[in-house]
Batch of 2 targets.
Target 1
Amino acid sequence: MSKIQIKGGNNLSGTIRIGGAKNSAVALIPAAILCDSKVTICNVPDITDTEALEEILKYLGANISRASESIIIDSSTIENKEIPEGISKKLRASYYFMGALLGRYKQVEMHFPGGCSIGARPIDLHLKGFEALGATVEEDGNKYKVYVKDKVLKGANIFLDIASVGATINIMLAAVYAKGVTTIENAAKEPEIVNVATFLNQMGANIKGAGTNTIKIKGVTELTGCFHEVIPDRIEAGTYLIAGAMCGKYLKIDNIIPEHLELVISKLSEMGVEMEVGTDYVIVNAPKEYKPTHIRTAVYPGFPTDLQQPFMALLTQANGKSIVEEKIWENRFMHVPYLNKMGAKIEMCGDKATVEGKTELTGCEVIATDLRAGAAMVVAGLLAKNTTTIDNVEHILRGYEDIIDKLNNVGAEIKFID
Ligand code: UD1
C-alpha cells in the first residue's frame, strides 16, 4: 500500500465539497436489503468502507449498479448465507447486516465485525436488543448465530445502557418487521440515525422519534423500494474545517449542514478562529493566534469523538494549555506519540490529554494508527514545516473520499507515494 506525503505550510483557499456521510451510508446500504425491490441511494461516498459493504451485498446475491454518486441496490435475488469472516472483518459496519438479515429472514449467521482498534468495541447491546425482540443468540468464538424459533420477532421495550449509535440502528433494522411496537429508550441521537430512520420510513416503515432519546418502531409487513439521499458527512466537514482553522485563507467547506457541527464551530470560535457560517457552508480563516480550550467528547450533540484526534493537532497551536477528555473510546490517543514526534508537547493520563502550546510542528514519518488518527496526521502535516510521510493510509481511505484531490485543489501539496 502506498503512503501519503505532504509538503506542509501552504495556505488553503477555495472550496472543498463535502461528500455523503460515511456513518450513514454504511447503515443505509445494509438496510436496503430489508425490501426486495430496487432502492436508489444517492450521495454515497466512494470510500473503501462502502466498497466492502457492496462486496457483502454481491456475495449475498444482490444486483448493484453504481452511477456516479448513486448506488442502486436490487435485493430481490439475495440468499441468506453466512457472511465469511474475511469480508465482515473489513469494517465495523458489517454488523448492520445482523439487524437487516435478522429483520428480513429472522435468522443471521456472521462474525464479529472489524474496524478501527480504538477500544474494545463490544456488541453486547446489539445482541441484547435482538434477544429482547425474541431472538436467540448463539456465540461460538467470534461467530454469532441469531435466530427466532417461531420466525416472529416481537416488539419490546429496550433500554440501552449506553446510547450506542450501532445498537440503536441495528435494533431499528431488526424491529421494522417485528410484531407490535418496539421502543428504544436512551437511543443515540446522531444525525446519521435520523437519516437511516427517514430511509426506512420512505420504504414504508413506521418509525417515530429518531433524533430524540426515545424511538418508537411500529412493525409493518412490507417495505418497498425508494430513492434516498445520504446526509453530508459532518466528520469529513469537521476535519477540513480544522484544516482551515490551521491553514485556511478563505477556505469554503461546502455542501454541509452546519447545525450538525454546532459544538465544533463554537469551540473553533472560542479559540479565535474566524468563520462565516452560511446555510450550507462555512468559510474559515486561520487566525494569527489561538486561545487554548477544553474539549470533552460526548454523544451527539456533544463534541464528536471522531473529531477529537484532528482537533488535538489544532490545539498544539494554541497559546497555553488545552485539555482533551476522551469519554467514548478507551484507546483513542494513539495519534499522540506521532504528534509529539512532530514536535507537539502532549501528555496523556488515562482518558485525559494535556496539550501544551504553542509548539512548532515539523514533518517526519508517522503512522495512521486508525481512521481519525490518520486525519490528525493529515491536518498536522498540512501545517508542519518540511515533509510529512504517513504510513498505513488504508485507514484514511476507509473514510475520506478523494482526500488527495480535495486538498490539492485548495492549494495543498499532498500525494500518494509508493
Ligand atoms: C459509531 C461510529 C463511530 C463513532 C461512534 C461514537 C459508525 C459506523 N461508527 O460507532 O465513528 O466513533 O459511533 O460516536 O457509525 N458499546 C458497548 N456495547 C455495545 C455497543 C457500544 O459497550 O454493544 C460502547 C462502545 O464500546 C463505546 C460506546 O458504547 O464506548 C459508543 O459506541 P457506539 O456508539 O456503539 O459506536 P459505534 O456504533 O461502534
Target 2
Amino acid sequence: MKNFFSVADVDNLSDLVEEALAIKANPNTEESLGKHKVLGLVFLNPSLRTRLSTQKAAMNLGMNVMVMNMDKDGWALETQDGVVMNGTTVEHIREAAAVMGEYCDILGLRSFPSLKDREADYNEDLFNKFIKFCGVPVVSLESATRHPLQSLTDLITITEYKQVDRPKVVLAWAPHVKALPQAVPNSFAEWMVKAQEQNLLDFTIAHPPGYELAEEFTTGATITHDLNDALSEADFVYVKNWSSYKEYGEVYPVSENWMMDNEKLKQTNDAKVMHCLPVRRDLELSAEILDGPNSLVIKEASNRVWAAQVVLKRILERLNKNI
Ligand code: CP
C-alpha cells in the first residue's frame, strides 16, 4: 500500500479486515516496525477519533508522531497555481507540503469540502496537490469526498459483530441542523458495494428524495426512499446525515421523521446501530438507542485504532523494503 485514500488502494478487503482483527488480538507484536519513523498528522478541520486513534496506532508500531493543526496554528494556505499572493494566503501548498515531507516519513491529512464548489471538492484538488508535493506516502484522515479509515473501521466492526454470513447492512439518512459533507456516506457506500461484490454482505441505502449520493459511490447498492422498507430484516443500520449532492450542499426540509429510534428498530432483525460520531443525540439518533444494547458506536470508535494500525503497518512494510 503506497497511499490510503479510497477502497481502490486495497487489493483484498477480507485480508485487510482479517489482519486488522489479528492486530486487535495482539496489538504490540510490531512495535519496532516504525522505529525512527515519523508520522505527521495535518488537520485543516477538527477531530477527536481520527487524531487520537491514528496516534495510538502509530505508537503501537513504535513511530514518533507530530500533529499540526493547520487551521489554527499554520499559515493560511494558497492552493491555486498562478496567483499573485497579495491577499490573505501566506504560504503555497507547494512549499508547505514539500517541507512537511522533509520532516515526516508518512503524512496524514484531513481536509473537509467547501460544500460550495462541487467540481473543486470532487476533484480532490487540495488532496492531490498535497500527495504530489509532499513526496511521502499520504493517509487520508478524511478528504472532501471520502473517509477511508472510518469505512475500513466500519467493515471491521460489521465483520466482528455479524451473526449471519451475509448480513443486511442499511445506510440510513438522518436529520441534522447543519449542511454536512457526503464524505462519510460516499466512502461507506463504496466500501460496502465492494464488500457486497465479494458476497460479504447485502447493502441498501435509504434517504429522502433529493439526497441522492453520487453514482460513482453507490452503483450496485439497493437505493430506496422508504426507510421502513429498508429497515425490514436489517442486521446493521448505519445512521448518518448528509447534505444534497445534486443541489450541492443544500439542506431540504424532510417531512417524515427519519431519526432512528427504538420503535423503528423493531422492524429490523434486532439490528446493531452504527454511527461514525460525533452524533447529535435525539436529532440524528435517539438517546435510547445510543444508551441501549443495540448501539455499536463506542466499539466502532474503538476499532478506529486497528484500522489505522493495519494501514500504517502496510505502508511501513513497503517503506522498509524501499519500494
Ligand atoms: N468519526 C470521525 O472521524 O471522528 P472525528 O471527526 O472526531 O475524527
